[in-house]
Design a protein that fits this description.
It is a single chain. The chain is of the alpha/beta class. The chain has three domains: 243 residues, Rossmann fold (3-Layer(aba) Sandwich), CATH 3.40.50; 310 residues, ABC transporter type 1, transmembrane domain (ABC transporter transmembrane region fold, Up-down Bundle), CATH 1.20.1560.10; 249 residues, 3-Layer(aba) Sandwich (Rossmann fold). Helices cover 53% and strands 14% of the residues. It is built from 29 helices and 27 strands. The chain has a six-stranded mixed β-sheet with strand order 21-24-25-18-26-27, with helices on both faces.
C-alpha cells in the first residue's frame, strides 16, 4: 500500500471480511463462490482450510443446502467461516480481515489462522490486514499497529513493541500468558494429536461408519451461537433423497380459485357492519332519487300545453327540485361513509396484521423472508388504503345504475325482457372468465413482489461486502431479473383488460340496437317521453355495464390484498402476553430463585427432545456459568427460560411461580438478557437505553459510566440524543454490546442472562465488564453462557451440558478436581 495524504491507495484487488458476517439467501456453495467461476480444487482447499468441511458433510444437501435470510440457520461462528471462505476463494491481492476469529473459539481459531491467515496458510503470499483482540497471534505478524483514540500510538514488530516497553508492552505482559498457555495446550492436547476434525470449537467424535456429534441441520437442536436449528443423530441417518427435499425458507405463495366470501365479510366487519349497511342504503336512496327525477321529467314532457302554457309547472318543478336535493344529500352521505369506512377498515386491518405478526413465535421469523412482511405492510396495506374504497364506490354506483337502467327499459319497452336476460348471461360469463385470469395475475404479481423487497433489503445489509468484492453489477442484474419477473404478471393483466373491453363494447352495442328496435316496433303504443327515456338509458347502459363488469373484477382482484393480510391472522401464535388471574405481584421476583423440575424442550412436535430431565435449583443471588460443546443445549436453556419455546415436559419455577402459568410480558419484563448479537433500533441513544422512558438522565449517565461508555457518549455532539442508525450501524460491535450492558444496568432485574455477551470486545474491556457485573448485580441471579471460560472461574457454580442434559454441576474448583468435561474444556483454554 502506498499511503498518500487523506486517503490510502490499494494496489490490486481487495477482499473484505467484516466483523459481523454477512451471508446471502442462497446455497452455501453460491455464498462461497459469490458469482465467480467454480474451481473444484480451490473450492475444496478453501472449505477445508476454513473448517467448513464437517458442516458441509452434515448439511441436508451438502454445499447445495439453502442458507436462510441473514443466515438464520447458521451459528455466528459458521457465518463467520462462510464469510472468510468467500474472501479466500476470490483470490484477491489484499485482505482486510475485521476480527473474523471473534465468533469462533480456540480450536477453530487456531486451525483457521494456521491454514488460512498465518505465514503458512493459503494467504501466505497476500497482503493481510488483520484486526484482532486475540493477542496470541501477534508474534506471527510482520507489523503491529496499536490504535488509541483513532490514532496509531505504537507501531512495529512484536519484539520491537516489547523492547519499546510502552503501554502496549505492559498490556501484553498482563494478558499474553494465558493466551500463550492456551496455544501450547492446543498443540499438546490429545484431541489435537489424534487429528480429529474440529467443528466450531467442538470436536467431532467419529465412530465406525457414522458421526455421533450433533451438527448443523434443519431441526432438532439449536446451535451454540445463536440458537438456530441443528440436527440430531437420527436426522443424520435420514436418506439423502429426503435430505435433499428439505427447504428452509417459506416462499410467498399464491392461493388459487375464487376469493372466499369470508374475506368480503372480514372487510365489512373492519369497516363496521352498521356503516356498511348505511352506505348501501344511501346508494339505494341516491339511485331511487335519480330514477324518480328522470321518470318525473319524462312525465312532465307529456303534460298538455294549453294556450301556449304547460300545465302543472309549479308542482313538477317543486317535486323535481326536491328529488335533486335528496339525491345530492345521498351522494354526499355515501361518499363520506365510504371514505371514512375505508380509513377505519385500513386502520383496523393494519393494526390486526401488526398485532398478529408481533404475536408470532420466533420460528415464523426464521422461515419467513423479510420481503414477505414488507410486501404485506407496504403494497397490500396501500391497496386497502387507497385502491379498494374508490372501487367499492364505483362498483356500488355501477350496480344500481345497471339495475335502474334495466327497470326503465323494461317499463318503457316490456318486450325488452326477451333479450336482456340472455345478454346479461353473456356479460356474466365474460366477467367470470376475465376475473378468473385477472384475480390470479394479481396474486402472482403480489407474490413475485416479495423477492424484490427481500433482495433489496439483503443487498443493503451487505453493501460493504458487495462493493469490496466489486459485485455491484451482478446484484443490480439480479434485482432487474426479479423486477422483470414481477412485471411478467403485471403486463398480461393489461392485455386481459383490453380483451375485456372489446367484448363488453360488443354486447353493449347489442343492447342499444335491441332497445332502439323495440322502441320503433312499439312506437304507436308508447309516449314520446318514455321512448326518449328508454333510448337514453339504453345508450348509457353500455357504459354502466362496462363499469359494472370492470369494477366487480377490480374489486375481486384487489380484495386479494385483504385475503393476504387476513392470511397472517390465522397463523400459530405465542401464549397470551398478560393473564390477569395469574399475574404475579409487581415486586416479583424478590429473591431470583430459579428451579428446573424435570424440564424438557423440543422445537417441533415431531422432533425429539433437545433438553431432557433438567433438574437444577439456582438460589437467589447465585452466579451460574453454563458451558458445553456445540449443540449441548446452552442457548436452548435460555430460550426455555424466556418461553421462546414452550416446555415439552416438566416446569420452570421462579420464586414459587410456574412461568408457564403467567403471561409472556409478565415473565419477560422481569428477566434481562444481554445477547451475543446486540440489538439496537433506529432512534436516539437515550431511546435505545431507556425505551419506556422510565429513568432520569442522571440514572442513564450513571449506567453509561458503569458500562464504560461515558467518555464516548460525552464526546458525541448530541450526547444522549445521538441518532443511532438502523441496527446501530454507526457504532462498533463492541460499543453496541456496551449499550446493551448499560440498558441491563438500568433495568436492574433480579435475573440476568448473558449469552456470550463479551465475545466482540477486547480482553481489557471484557475484564472491566465482568467487574461491573459482579459489583452491580451482586444480589441478582446471573446465568452466563460462557465463551471465555476465565470469565466464570469465580462463579458460584458451573453447569456443564452435554446433549441436552446436565452432566456436571458444582463449583469451578470441584469440577476441576473431578477432571471431567469441564476440566478438559479448561485445559483446552489454558486455564489449568
Amino acid at each position: 500500500m502506498d499511503k498518500k495524504e487523506g486517503y490510502v491507495v490499494v494496489k490490486g484487488s481487495v477482499a473484505y471480511v467484516p466483523q459481523q458476517a454477512w451471508v446471502q439467501n442462497a446455497t452455501l456453495e453460491d455464498n462461497i463462490i459469490f458469482g465467480r467461476e467454480l474451481s473444484e480444487s480451490r473450492y475444496k482447499r478453501v472449505i477445508e482450510a476454513c473448517a467448513l468441511l464437517p458442516d458441509i458433510e452434515i448439511l441436508p444437501s451438502g454445499d447445495k443446502t439453502e442458507i436462510g435470510e441473514k443466515g438464520v440457520n447458521l451459528s455466528g461462528g459458521q457465518k463467520q467461516r462462510v464469510s472468510l471462505a468467500r474472501a479466500v476463494y476470490c483470490n484477491a491481492d489484499v485482505y482486510l480481515l475485521d476480527d473474523p476469529l471473534s465468533a469462533v473459539d480456540a480450536h477453530v481459531g487456531k486451525h483457521i489462522f494456521e491454514k488460512v491467515i498465518g505465514p503458512k496458510g493459503l494467504l501466505k503470499n497476500k497482503t493481510r490486514v488483520l484486526v484482532t483482540h486475540a493477542i496470541n497471534y501477534l508474534p506471527q505478524m510482520d507489523t503491529i499497529l496499536v490504535m488509541t483514540d483513532g490514532e496509531i500510538s505504537e507501531m512495529g514488530s512484536y519484539q520491537e513493541l516489547l523492547e519499546q516497553d510502552g503501554a502496549f508492552a505492559e498490556f501484553l505482559r498482563t494478558y499474553a500468558n494465558a493466551e500463550q498457555t492456551m496455544e501450547s495446550s492446543d498443540t499438546n492436547s490429545p484431541s489435537a494429536k489424534e487429528g480429529k476434525p474440529i467443528e466450531n470449537g467442538g470436536l467431532v467424535n467419529e465412530a465406525p461408519g457414522k458421526l455421533i456429534h450433533r451438527q448443523l441441520s434443519n431441526s432438532s437442536t439449536y446451535s451454540r451461537d445463536t440458537g438456530k436449528p441443528q440436527s440430531s443423530t437420527a436426522d443424520l441417518q435420514k436418506p439423502l433423497a429426503e435430505k435433499n427435499s428439505w427447504k428452509l425458507t417459506e416462499a410467498d405463495t399464491a392461493k388459487t380459485g375464487r376469493v372466499k366470501a369470508s374475506v368480503y365479510w372480514e372487510y365489512m366487519k373492519a369497516i363496521g357492519l352498521c356503516m356498511s349497511f348505511l352506505a348501501i342504503f344511501l346508494f339505494m336512496c341516491n339511485h331511487i332519487a335519480s330514477l324518480s327525477s328522470n321518470y318525473w321529467l319524462s312525465l312532465w314532457t307529456d303534460d298538455p300545453v294549453i294556450n301556449g302554457t304547460q300545465q302543472n309547472t309549479t308542482l313538477r318543478l317543486g317535486v323535481y327540485g326536491a328529488l335533486g336535493i335528496s339525491q345530492g344529500i345521498a351522494v354526499f352521505g355515501y361518499s363520506m361513509v365510504v371514505s371514512i369506512g375505508g380509513i377505519f377498515a385500513s386502520r383496523h386491518l393494519h393494526l390486526n396484521l401488526l398485532h398478529n405478526v408481533l404475536r408470532s413465535p420466533m420460528s415464523f421469523f426464521e422461515r419467513t423472508p423479510s420481503g414477505n412482511l414488507v410486501n404485506r405492510f407496504s403494497k397490500e396495506i396501500d391497496t386497502i388504503d387507497s385502491t379498494i374504497p374508490p372501487i367499492i364506490k364505483m362498483f356500488m354506483g355501477s350496480t344500481f345504475n345497471v339495475i335502474g337502467a334495466c327497470i326503465i327499459i323494461l317499463l318503457a319497452t316490456p318486450i325488452a325482457a326477451v333479450i336482456i336476460p340472455p345478454l346479461g348471461l353473456v356479460y356474466f360469463f365474460v366477467q367470470r372468465f376475465y376475473v378468473a385470469t385477472s384475480r390470479q395475475l394479481k396474486r402472482l404479481e403480489s407474490v413475485s413482489r416479495s423477492p424484490v423487497y427481500s433482495h433489496f433489503n439483503e443487498t443493503l445489509l451487505g453493501v460493504s461486502v458487495i462493493r469490496a468484492f466489486q459485485e455491484q453489477r451482478r446484484f443490480i442484474r439480479q434485482n432487474d431479473i426479479k423486477v422483470d419477473e414481477n412485471q411478467k404478471a403485471y403486463y398480461p393483466s393489461i392485455v386481459a383488460n383490453r380483451w375485456l373491453a372489446v367484448r363488453l363494447e360488443y354486447v353493449g352495442n347489442c343492447i342499444v340496437l335491441f332497445a332502439a328496435l323495440f322502441a320503433v316496433i312499439a312506437r304507436n303504443k308508447l309516449s314520446a317521453g318514455l321512448v326518449g327515456l328508454s333510448v337514453s338509458y339504453s345508450l348509457q347502459i353500455t357504459a354502466y355495464l362496462n363499469w359494472l363488469v370492470r369494477m366487480s373484477s377490480e374489486l375481486e382482484t384487489n380484495i386479494v390484498a385483504v385475503e393476504r393480510v387476513k392470511e397472517y391472522s390465522e397463523m400459530e401464535k405465542e401464549a397470551e402476553w398478560s393473564i390477569e388471574q395469574t399475574a404475579p405481584g409487581s415486586s416479583w421476583p424478590q429473591e431470583g430463585k430459579v428451579e428446573f423440575r424435570g424440564y424438557g424442550l423440543r422445537y417441533r412436535e415431531d422432533l425429539d427432545l433437545v433438553l431432557k430431565n433438567i433438574n437444577v435449583t439456582i438460589n437467589g443471588g447465585e452466579k451460574i456459568g453454563i458451558v458445553g460443546r456445540t449443540g449441548a443445549g446452552k442457548s436452548s436453556l435460555t430460550l426455555g427460560l424466556f418461553r421462546i419455546n414452550e416446555a415439552a415436559e416438566g416446569e420452570i419455577i421462579i420464586d414459587g411461580v410456574n412461568i408457564a402459568k403467567i403471561g409472556l410480558h409478565d415473565l419477560r419484563f422481569k428477566i434481562t438478557i444481554i445477547p451475543q448479537d446486540p440489538v439496537l433500533f433506529s432512534g436516539s441513544l437515550r431511546m435505545n437505553l431507556d425505551p419506556f422512558d422510565r429513568h432520569s438522565d442522571e440514572d442513564i449517565w450513571r449506567s453509561l459510566e458503569l458500562a464504560h461508555l461515558k467518555n464516548f457518549v460525552s464526546s458525541l455532539p448530541d450526547k444522549l440524543n445521538h441518532e443511532c442508525a438502523e441496527g446501530g450501524e454507526n457504532l462498533s460491535v463492541g460499543q453496541r454490546q456496551l449499550v446493551c450492558l448499560a440498558r441491563a444496568l438500568l433495568r436492574k432485574s433480579k435475573i440476568l442472562v448473558l449469552d456470550e455477551a463479551t465475545a466482540a470486545v477486547d480482553l481489557e474491556t471484557d475484564k472491566l465488564i465482568q467487574s461491573t457485573i459482579k459489583s452491580q448485580f451482586e444480589e441478582c441471579t446471573v446465568l452466563t453462557i460462557a465463551h471465555r471460560l476465565n470469565t466464570i472461574m469465580d462463579y458460584t457454580r458451573v453447569l456443564v451440558l452435554e446433549r441436552g442434559e446436565v452432566v456436571e454441576c458444582g463449583t469451578p474448583d470441584q469440577l476441576l478436581q473431578e477432571k471431567g468435561i469441564f476440566y478438559s474444556m479448561a485445559k483446552d483454554s489454558g486455564l489449568v
